[in-house]
Amino acid sequence: MARGKLRIYLGAAPGVGKTYAMLAEAHRRVERGTDCVVAFVEHHERPRTEVMLHGLEQVPRKELEYRGGVFGEMDVDAVLRRAPAIALVDELAHTNIPGSRNAKRWQDVEELLAAGIDVISTVNIQHLESLGDVVESITGVRQRETVPDEVVRRAGQIELVDMSPEALRRRMAHGNIYQPDKVDAALSNYFRPGNLTALRELALLWVADRVDEYLNQYRSEHRVSKIWGSRERIVVGLTGGPEGRTLIRRAARLAEKGAGGEVLAVYIARSDGLTAASPKELAVQRTLVEDLGGTFHHVVGDDIPAALLDFARGVNATQIVLGSSRRKAWQYVFGPGVGATVARESGPDLDVHIVTHEEVAKGRGLPVARGARLGRTRILSGWAMGVAGPAVLALLLNTVDIGLANDMLLFLAVTVAAALLGGLLPALASVAFGSLLLNYFYTPPLHRWTIADPKNIVAIVIFFGVAVSVASVVDLAARRTHQAARLRAESEILSFLAGNVLRGETSLEELLERLRETFAMESAALLERQSDVEPWTCAGRAGFGPVLERPEDADVDMPVGDHMALALTGRVLPAEDRRVLAAFGAQAAVVLDRRRLQEEADQARTLAEGNRIRTALLAAVSHDLRTPLAGIKAAVSSLRSADVDWSEEDRAELLEGIEEGADRLDHLVGNLLDMSRLQTGTVTPLIREIDVDEVVPMALGGVPEDSVDLDVPETLPMILADPGLLERSVANLVENAVKYSPGGRRVLVSASALADRVEVRVVDRGPGVPDTAKDRIFEPFQRYGDAPRGAGVGLGLAVARGFAEAMGGTLTAEDTPGGGLTMVLSLRSIHGRQPVTESPETASTPAPAHGGPGSAEPERQTLC
């Protein structure tokens, strides 16, 4: 039986219309006479989706009991018995109720496909298993229900159901996705414009990659070698020279001119590895191309033009960018060059750009590693073999006659051994000494330095030439082997060093310790001074007994820039080690600069926080002291008035008002004094672990009791904040919201957890604020609209934001769905106490711990 075909409607978020599109396709199939049934579709009480189910045959669901409830799941056996041509199965990532045939719905779908039934299904991008961490970092919600990417990749058709974030939020606000009581929470959390935009981009990129895979598969199956310019792909050929940066930037500009342009930088190295570009320059170019959104590739090939063209055609490139040749004029006698060859052989479907640069015709000048020096022991052994070896061999051969040809082969073996041990010079000595011994002892006339037979002269000359050639090759191979091993060690050290430094994982002391261990030194120190006449100071050190005053006193002195140097003690390093040592010095300078920049950034941040608190302090003095002072003054004036005969009750009431005002002033002045000491650096904000439900209710004392609804769950995690500053921030927000709320409409103060933050939301139903004015309302002395002077001097929100930022939080303004303004105060939470929060996809039915009935589909799951 042929396997069924799978078609998937992929969406960026719930509510984009996947189920609706699937049902519309089913109606089209039924109208054409196709046997199509609904195996499982959940309409989530959406009227338009429910209407689309009319006229379609539905397979009855299988009811299962779980934790005292009855839930319906897809009846796989019933669908198999019905054996339709096409089955509609909604929500591919759903987790089935315990006791079902399979644990996951996609496993049910696999059974239907194996039975030859075509399946049309739906899934959201956030449910793909490989994107779980990415989605969590975007939305703050961990998707517990996922489907393996391979299941979706195997689908015969994947259709993207797209909708702009603005349109989706309008659908949500109109009640077309969730019930009205869940709309506000969904719009404020999961369905934020930023979240939806990021999820939409993920969906578009994922589908674009699948389309690219299908195209490459088609080209491979049909053996299409011709380039199809469906997407601009620009290959940059790099040589490792300094012109590579110019080529990369030029290619990036070309890619920006076309939609979806892609830059692929490729460096082609010879297979023998004897000629190589500068690793440092290639690392810089790799970073540049990745910063510009491209990719870097390393290809091995002896024929550079052919390897470059093969790579370009393999990735379906449309353009190649090469630099003008750096060869001098006389070097063209060896051939036309890479650029001309690639342009000639590229064909009509591949454009080649030859870009000029500053290095044109200046010579290649690629750095080649110097030959490695053999050890002293090996050189002495080689000389011993080259000088003593032929003499010992001659003594042995004098005792037996094996013929001139065999004698020459044995002397050639001694020469090769001398080359392996000591290099070329001992081998040449062995050749010369061996030739003389062959002439004297084994070439007629014997024991004379003359040769009678001309054939023997030719034989000795051939022996000399072969011996020199073999010795040269052996010596070169030995040196290259030693050189390759050394360069490999250097590259590993530099790669580890660069990776750690770029990732910020290495401090200066750790880097110096790594330097000391790498070169087996006793100590390492980084010294610096402000000018040539200033004394040296130690910026960092590692090991025992480092040089701290003068780099010249160290065993190794490596300058790093104009006024910085590495000082190492322990032994004198050979010249070839100074290249890696210089790289360590450059990285040490980078680490030191980064540490200082971080310190400066911390100081700037401290100053900025101090300025914010100072602004909030001044605002609070004028904003919060005036009311209690006015009340106290009025009460005292009334009591001292001789015109009015106050009763005991009136007198007690006025005294109570004076006392309340004085207490409020005392509390406020205490906080202000603490903040004033903060400006002098003598105190810091009292950041500690507190419960939101303990502080927020205290901030409502300044507003009428029937003007605010409070919704702060006790299960929220604790937050890091200053209780006094938090109370004043919330109080200002609530007073502002009550001030602008219409009569009879209460202000809602709620709190919820989102990822590692806790958000306090103050929601009013007033006139709202346009987007252009949302940032301006937080500036001091700003009053939105035509508010009368008596409504305040415009410092309440500025004070609230200043306090919030001083605690490491944020305060932003959002539109209230249906009209009004929502103030969002976000503060850090304690990770050790994780609440169970509901995502915007939570259903009204209780969700089991395993993600069962309450998470039966993307629109009904409970996520933490």
TL;DR?
The protein is built from 24 helices and 24 strands. Helix 4 (105-114) links the parallel strand 6 and strand 7.
Give Rg in angstroms: 40 Å
What is the makeup of the main sheet? 6 strands, parallel
Helical content class? 40-55%
Number of helices, counting only DSSP H or I runs of 4 residues or more: 24
Please give the order of strands in the largest beta sheet.
Answer: 3-2-6-7-1-8
Strand content: 15-25%
Termini distance?
A: 43 Å
Rounded mean pLDDT score: 78
Task: Assign the structural class, choosing from mainly alpha, mainly beta, alpha/beta, alpha+beta, or little secondary structure.
Answer: alpha/beta
Question: What's the overall geometry?
Answer: flat
DSSP summary, beta strand count? 24
Give the low-confidence spans.
363-372, 786-793, 832-864
Task: Walk me through the structure.
The structure is a single chain. The protein is α/β, with parallel strands linked by helices and 864 residues long. It has a 6-stranded parallel beta sheet, with helices on both faces. It has a 5-stranded parallel beta sheet with strand order 11-10-9-12-13, with helices on both faces. Strand 12, helix 13 and strand 13 (351-355) form a beta-alpha-beta unit. Helix 19 runs antiparallel to helix 21 (648-679). The protein is flat and about 150 Å long. Pfam families: DUF4118 (PF13493), HATPase_c (PF02518), HisKA (PF00512), KdpD (PF02702), Usp (PF00582). It is found in: Cell membrane; Membrane. This is histidine kinase.
